[in-house]
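User: quick one
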Amino acid sequence: MSLEILELQSGVEGLFIKNNRFNTTLVSYNFYLPLKKETAAENALLPFILTSCSNRYPDFSRLNYKLSKLYGARLNASTEKYGDYQLLRMTISVINDRFSLEGDSLVKNASELLLGLIFEPKCENGVFFEDDLEREKRKAIEHIKGEISEKRVFAKKRLIEEMFKNEPYGTPKCGTVEDVQAITGESLYKAWKNMLSSGFVRVQVVGSAVPDGLFEEVSERFSTVDRNNVCDCKISAPAKKVSTPKTVTDYMDVSQGKLCLGFSTTLCGNDDVALPLMVMTDIFGGGPYSRLFSNVREKMSLCYYCSASAIRQKGLVTVESGLETDNFEKAEKEILNQLEALKKGEFSDFEFESSIKSITDSLNTYNDSQNSIDLWYVIKVNNDSLYTPEDIAEKISTITREDVINAAEGVCLNTVYKLLPKEAK
Amino acid sequence: MKKELFENKIGEAYTKVILDNGLKVFILEKPQYNSAYALFGTKYGSIDTIFNVDGKEIAVPEGIAHFLEHKLFESQDGDAFSKFAKTGAYANAFTSFDRTCYLFSCSDKFYENLSILLDFVQSPYFTEETVNKEQGIIGQEIRMYDDSPAWRVMFNMLMAMYHNHPVRIDIAGTVESISKIDYNLLYDCYNTFYNPSNMFICIAGNVDTDTCLKQISEGVKKSDPKEIIRIKPEEPDSVLTDYTEQALEVAQPMFCFGFKESLDSPEKTVKEKILTSLLLNIISGDASPLYKQLINDGLINDEFDNEHFCGNGYSALIFEGESKDPKAVSMAIKNEILRLKNDGIDKKLFNAIRAGMYGSSIRLFNNVESIAMQLTECAMNDCGLFDELKYLKAITIDDVTRKLNEINLENSVLSVISPKN
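Assistant: Done. Structure below.
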C-alpha cells in the first residue's frame, strides 16, 4: 500500500493508490465544479453522455460490446454532491492482464477507452448530436422523476432541499426536469468545454500499477486547455444555525410515513476539524449500540430503522426513520431527548467505546475494497490532507468523551421534514 | 470429519470440510487482506412453511423464518449486538426464500467474533415478552416494503406466477400473519431447521484455516444429523395469471416480466444456471440488439436488467425495469426470443458475453464478502467455487441454443406497478 500524487497540470492531479490485492485495476476521473442551479443539469448530464458514445464508438451498443470483449470491463458514470461542489465521476475497472486468455493488454486498452470517451466526444461543429442528446435527456428526466419511488431516499432529498433552500447545497445534484429539458446540443458542448477548463480534476488509479502512459497522456490532453480559471473547491458554507426550526410536510399515498431531521453543527470542514462530529453522530445513531437504535427501535418498538449520519463538508447531521403516523410526535421527541442526553454527557462508556471500536474496525477494512478506497480519496481534495484510513483510525482513538460532548453541544435542529400518508391530512 | 482442498489456476484456493454432525464449513484464505467475513447459515427460509415435527405435520405462519432471525440475536445473557459492539465488528443477518444467514465482518479480533457467532446462533432464547416487542419493529419493516415499488413488482409477479409454491409469499409475512407467531412455534422451527446437518459456515479473508476449523469443531454442539421433511404443495407448470397490476406512488410504470420454467428436479444445476445467465444477456444484455432497440425507442432506461430467479422448486427468467409502456417491452422481448429461435444466436455476441462472464467470475475474488456469499451458494447447492470458471470454458453455442428453445413463450407473467392518479 502506498500513495503517489502528481500535479499533472494546473488543478489536475494524478493519484496512484498502489494496492496489489485486487484482480482488477480501477481508473477514475473526477471533475469538481461549483454546484449552481443554472449549471447543475448540464453538468450532471456530461458523465452520462460521455460514457455512452464517442468518436471511436459512435453508438452505445458497440461500446457495450467492446466492454464485454474486455472481459466485462465496467464503465460507470455518476454525479454527486461534494459540499457546495458538484462531482462528476467516470470510472472504468477491468481484470488485470494476467487473467487475459489471449494475452492482450486489458488495463491499457480500458484506460485508453475511457480517456477517449472523455476527450473525444461524438460532436460536430461544437454541438452534441441530437439523437444522443435526446436519449440521455430522456433517461436523466426519468431518473429525476423516479426519485419518488424509494421513499426513504426521496424524504432525505426533500429535507436537504428544504433545509438549504436558496443555497447552492439545496440544488438537486442532477438539476430539475425543467433544466434538463432546456439543454441543447450547443449548451452541453459548452458545459463539456467548461468542465475541462475550469473543473478541478483528480484522476485516480487503484491497482498494482498505473496503466502505461496514463498520467503523461492526461497531462498532454490538458496542456492545450486554458486552465487559468480553475475551481478551487475549497469552501463549502456550513449549515446555518436557526433560532426556530421549520417543519415541512408532504403527503403521499403511502402506508408508512418518513421522518427526517436536519441539524446544523459547529464542526465543519476537513477531517481534523470534523472527527469528533463523526464519533458523536455514531453514538447518536450509528450501529446497534447507538442511542437511537437502542431506544427508538429496541426499547420503544417504534420503527425498523432510526439512524443518524453526518456530512463533514457541510457540518450537517441528519436523522431518518420510517414510522406509523401516530408515532411521529413520540419518535421526534425521543430523538431530541437522546441528543440532549449526549449534550449532557449522559452516555455510557460502553456506548462511547463501542463507537470508537466500530469506526476503527470499519476504517481498517477500506483497503480491501477497490471502490471504497477510490471514494475515500475522491473526497479528499485541496484543503484536505491525504490521510489514509489507518491515519484516521489512529486519530479516532485519541477522541475523548469531552470531544463528543462538545460536538453534541453545537448540534442544533434546523428543519423537520415529514412525509405522511394522505389519510393523515 | 471429511476435508478437501480445491485450487484454481487464477491463484485462489479454499477448503471444504464436513464435520461428523453434518455441518459444512468452507474457508478461503486471503492473507494479503486486512479483513475477514464469516457467515453461519441454515437452509431455512420463507418457503419452508409446512414440515414434519416428530412425525406430525405442522404449518407455520408466513414470515416466521425472518421473525426467528430477528429474535435469535437475543440470548439469556444479553443480545449478540452488544457482544459484537465490544469487538467493533459489523454484524447483521438476512432471510431469503431458502436460507437464513448470520454474519459479521471485521478487521480485528476475528476469532473472538467467530466465537460470538457460533454461540448466539446456537443459543435460542425466546419469551413471550421479547416476541411481542418484535411485532412492532417487524410490522414497520413490512410497511416499509409495502411502499417499495421495486419489492412489490417482484412479489406481485411471483403471486401471479405460482399457484401454490410458497415462493409466492412475502419473506417477512404480513402484519396479520406475524401476529400469530409465539415463542413455542419459534422453538419448533429452530429445533427443526437449526440442526448442524442443515447448516453451513462460510469464511473468507485474513484467517488461518486450521485455527478456524479447530474453533468451529469445538464450538459446534454435538448432535445427530436429522432428516428434515419439508412438505411442498403440488405446483402446476402453468402460471396462475399472465398479468397483474398495482398502483403506487411512482413517476412512471415499473415492470417485472418473467417466464416460468418447468422443473425436472427440484434444483437447477450450476451448469444450467450459467447457461441461463448467458442466454439472458444474449437476449437483453446491454450489448444485445434488443437493448439497443428498446433504448432507441424510449422504452427502457438504465434500470433495465435481467435475472435468473431459482431455488428449491421454482425457476424463472426475469426481465425488469421502468417503462412508459411495459406491455410493449414484454412484446419486444417475446419477439426477440422468437427471432433468436428462428435465426440462431450470433456467434460474436455469444463470445463477447462469455468473455464478460469470465471477467465477472475473476472479479468476484476481489471482495471477501462476495466470496463468502458465493461459498454459501456452494453450501446450498452442493457445487464448487470454481465451477463457473470451469463451465464457462466448456459451454458451446449449441448448449445455449438448447436452453433458448426450452423457453415457453406462452408461460409468462407481466407484473406492472402503475402511477397513482
